[in-house]
Amino acid sequence: MGIAVFASAKRIFLGYMLSIIIGIFVGLAIVRFKYLDENVSPLILGLQTLPSICWLPFSILWYGLNESAIIFVITIGSTFAVSIAIESGMKNINPLFVRAAKTMGAKGFSLYWNVIIPASLPSIISGLKQGWSFAWRALMAGEMLSATKGLGQVLMVGRDLADISQVMAIMIVIVILGVAVDKLIFGRMEINIRQKWGLDKA
Fold first, then answer.
1. Can you give the three-state secondary structure of the chain, one letter per residue?
2. What are residue 168's phi and psi, to 5 degrees?
3. Burial class (CB in 10 A: 0-12, 13-18, 19+), 141
C-alpha cells in the first residue's frame, strides 16, 4: 500500500505542477490578448467538459503505457480548470481597483503583480482546488487502465478479486489524501488571503 501511495503521489505532484504552470501561462495569455480571448477561450471551456479518460487513448499512442502517459493525462485533465480560473478571476475583479492603481501610476507588470493578481487570488485558488480534484480523477483513470503500480492499479486488483475491503481501503486513502491537501495547503492559502485583506474581521 505504501509503495502505491508514493507512486501515485509522485505522479499527481508532477502532473498537477505542470498543469498549474501551463494553466497560468494560458490564462494570462487569454486575458492579455483579445484574439485569444475571442477564439481560444471558448475552445478551452469546451475541452474542460471532456472526461480525463478521453485523453488516455492519445497518451497511449504518443507515450505508450508508461509513466509519461499517466502524467500527460493528469496534466491535460487539470490544465483547463486552472486556466479558466485565471481568466475568470482576472476578468471579474472590481474595475475600481484597476482605475485607482492607474491613477497612481501603476501599469504593465506592476499593475498585474500588485493589483490584478492579488485581487483575483480567491478565484484562482478555487480553480486550483477544482484542478486538483480533476487531477485525481485523471490519475485514477490512467492507473486503472495501466499496469503501473499505484492506487488506481491496486483498486483494479481489488475489483478483479472481488475484494471489497481492498476497494474500500483505497477509496478511504484517496479521501484522506484529498482532505489533507485541502486543509494543509488550499485551506491555509485561503486563510492567509482572508487575513491579509481583513475579511476575517468583518
1. CHHHHHHHHHHHHHHHHHHHHHHHHHHHHHHHCHHHHHHHHHHHHHHHCCCHHHHHHHHHHHHCCCHHHHHHHHHHHHHHHHHHHHHHHHHCCCHHHHHHHHHCCCCHHHHHHHHHHHHHHHHHHHHHHHHHHHHHHHHHHHHHCCCCCCHHHHHHHHHHCCCHHHHHHHHHHHHHHHHHHHHHHHHHHHHHHHHHCCHHHC
2. -65, -35
3. buried
Q: Evaluate whether 82 touches 20 at the Cβ level (below 8 Å).
A: yes
Q: Are 8 and 143 in contact (CB under 8 A)?
A: yes
**74/145 Cα distance (integer angstroms):** 14
Amino acid identity of residue 25, one-letter, is F
pTM confidence score: 0.82
Domains in the chain: ranges and CATH: 2-149 (1.10.3720.10)
Point out the residues of the chain with pLDDT beneath 70.
1, 146-147, 197-202
Give 14-51 pLDDT, tens digit per residue: 999 999 999 989 988 888 888 888 888 888 888 888 88
Name the residue type at position 91. K
